[in-house]
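Hello,

Our lab assistant flagged a job as stuck in the queue for most of the afternoon. It eventually completed. Since we weren't sure the result was trustworthy after the delay, we are filing this so someone can double-check. Below is the sequence as submitted and the structure that was eventually returned. Let us know if re-running is recommended.
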Amino acid sequence: MRALGPIRRPPLMKIRSRSFEWRQQKLRIATLVIPHRGIHPSCEEIQPMSTTTTYAVTGLTCSCCAKSVTTELNKIDGVHDVQVDVVPDSASRVTLTSSSDIAADDVRGAIEAAGYALSDPATA
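-- returned structure --
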């Protein structure tokens, strides 16, 4: 590793550093501290960036089932993340995170394309 040169920083920022020894080497860690200036007026109206909905899906029995449902749901525009909790003898939980509300018909179509059935959104 090579040593970094002097750090240039804008005014009002502070650098805190701490030295310690690890495995017989002396190390120094520097942290850049930016003072809090309050919330900018334009940031007060920020809306949530994602929506999470949980659905009950019947017929899932293994990780391969979960993968096929995940693959189909990820094809829907706006979907960021899909989490599947497989419950073999009951309805499994599929949690869908998206940038906006996804129509239930789109979710139902994707799950049916994977070969499973969608129940109403789960209540947990």
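-- support follow-up --
The delay was a queue issue, not a problem with the job. The result is valid. The CA atoms of residues 8 and 73 lie 47 Å apart. The helical segments are 63-73, 104-113.
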